[in-house]
Design brief:
Order of helices and strands: HHHHEEHEEEEHEEHEEEEE
Structural class: alpha+beta
Number of domains: 2
Strand content: 35-45%
Helix content: 25-40%
Distance between the termini: 40 Å
Keywords: Membrane, Transmembrane, Transmembrane helix
Radius of gyration: 19 Å
Number of helices: 7
Largest sheet: 7 strands, antiparallel
Amino acid sequence: MLKGVSSRPAFRIGSVLVTVAVAGGLIGMGLEEVRYGGSTELERAEAAADAVEQEARTLRRSRQDEAILARTLSYFPPYPNGGRPEALAADYLGPDAPIAVAFFETKDSSDQVLQHYRKFLLDKGLPVVGLRFNQNAGYVGYWSPSTEEVRLMSTMRQGDTTEVFVSTARVASYLERDSQVPSWVPVPPSLKDATSLSLRMEGSTQVSVSGLVPAAALPEVEQQFREALRARGWTVSESTVSGFQESTLDVTHTGLRGQAMLRQPTAQPQVEFYLTLMKAGQAAP
């Protein structure tokens, strides 16, 4: 059913926007690993106190937060078992790429959330786009040709909770402007239709790359990627097989760490490639 869909604008933009939305979550939440890595116990205690104060403040939303929620939640109904939605971030890609991201949590699985909203969109007769990365992550949404917006529900399972990122964005111009893969980023030799996205955060930069390796099998592409990594001094873990046609690799280099996922859709002679790297400061191999 998805054969050939990766060449369509909605699918291509959607596969990158899910990374943009989650990165917006990182910006909005301020993950401790990025902001407080290497800090002292006193700094961590101060951060914890700030978090308590921030939680109290969020009980009363600001006008900006209300605006973000209005931009994101108006296109999807509330999730039946979802928690209180919160604003995360907006317009962090520049003036020519408006985006808004909100999120909520649920105890339901990633698949339950995706199936719920997929049914809603199909019942409305909307052109659904989506991808299930694995049992813990994926996205579903639709493309609005009249506004050139992609509207998504992106899921990420953490422990016994699923975080659901709700986003709406017009990012086509951003992708056209800034889609070249940086020369220092390792990718499979035969990668095609590659799109790169770099997001600057406090003291670090997140780089995400996606693309396709045509006319190939998963074991072959994984081996080629491993060889490319080692030739450039990267350390690569043993693959974690998430399914018969999917594998995940942890990759590291001085000042860099990340994860790659290779996935071969059923009955398709191509391999999907996704790579997310976190770069500290100006580090580059």
